[in-house]
Amino acid sequence: MNSASALDSVRAAKEIPLIFGPTGVGKTEVALGLAQRLGGEIISADSRGFYRGLEIGTAKPTAEQRRLVPHHLLDIRSPEERYDVAEFRRDVARLIGEIRARGRWPIVVGGSTLYMQALVGGLFPGPQADLALRRRLLARPLEELYIRLREVDPRSAEKINPQDRQRLVRALEVYELTGRPLSELQAQSEPFPHSFIKIGLVMDRKRLYKRLDARVEAMLAQGLIEEARQLKRQVNPEMPAYRTIGYEEAFAYLEGALSLEEAVRLIKRNTRRLAKRQLTFFKRIPEAHWIDVTAKAAAEVVQEVLALLGERAEVSA
């Protein structure tokens, strides 16, 4: 299928490619190749890519990659600021309209489960964050948070990983502020105004973990510790940017709480755990089309995606 017919197929199906998968699986390269073939623009759904100054540790697209293909929702907030899922959802809807108006095609790429949920699972009309309450919740042990959530909202507790502090805190915050379980409010969620063709990338787990370990070593060689040193002047533990794998462990090393060797070990371990949690979440996304990218070049995967888009267009025609 050539690029012109592929683009026609996507437009005919009226579906937006949504590419997801665990960290390190190769989403960036596939999205870039697809955007170049289709004349597209990339919308990032990476919760840490939103923040300026988190470059090395978040594996953001390089300056050269951004020159090749327009990217959106990268570096839109300083590390001290917050960017919630409601803002994200509104921005994605706006960007999709603007990109289409230019005669180009939006491609959404991400691995952040909370922000992906806002696109594929709707968004409930939840309360604004209460920073004082959130501060108190963040100070409590993970086990205590999870036990409390099981008491007040067992349905959410079944879905949230007991190690996912951010989601545990938000679920409890919603309950404390509204008196209603998060799961109950989510039942009132509104669907996203655009439809997606959901494309998941998966890789042999052992190979993925080796890639992740190698990427951590590469980040260290590129200056991750020094970048963390600069970032530490701007953030504190209450800010999402602080609680980012790679930086949080580096902060502990800079504070003398960890040796460099232990910090590196924890970065690798926590990155692998993140990938596992992401994959568990993504496997629950309905109507997802999965592509095994093990031992495949990005160009091969792009061809598979283009073929899938063509098939979807024929079905919807």
Write a structural description.
The protein is α/β, with parallel strands linked by helices and 317 residues long. It is built from 15 helices and 6 strands. The protein folds into 2 domains: 3-121 and 190-316, Rossmann fold (3-Layer(aba) Sandwich); 131-186, Orthogonal Bundle (Histone, subunit A), CATH 1.10.20.140. It has a 6-stranded parallel β-sheet with strand order 3-2-4-1-5-6, with helices on both faces. Strand 2 (40-44), helix 3 and strand 3 form a beta-alpha-beta unit.
Q: Give the ordered list of helices and strands.
A: HEHEHEHEHHHHHHEHHHHEH
Count of the domains: 2
Q: Give the helix proportion (percent range).
A: 40-55%
As laid out across the biggest beta sheet, the strand order is 3-2-4-1-5-6
Tally of alpha and pi helices: 15
Q: Could you please say which CATH topology of the largest domain applies here?
A: Rossmann fold
Low-confidence stretches: none
pLDDT averaged residue by residue: 89
CATH superfamily of the largest domain: P-loop containing nucleotide triphosphate hydrolases
Quick overview of this protein structure:
This protein is an alpha/beta fold. It contains 15 helices and six strands. The chain is globular.
Keywords for this entry:
globular, 317 residues, alpha/beta, Histone, subunit A
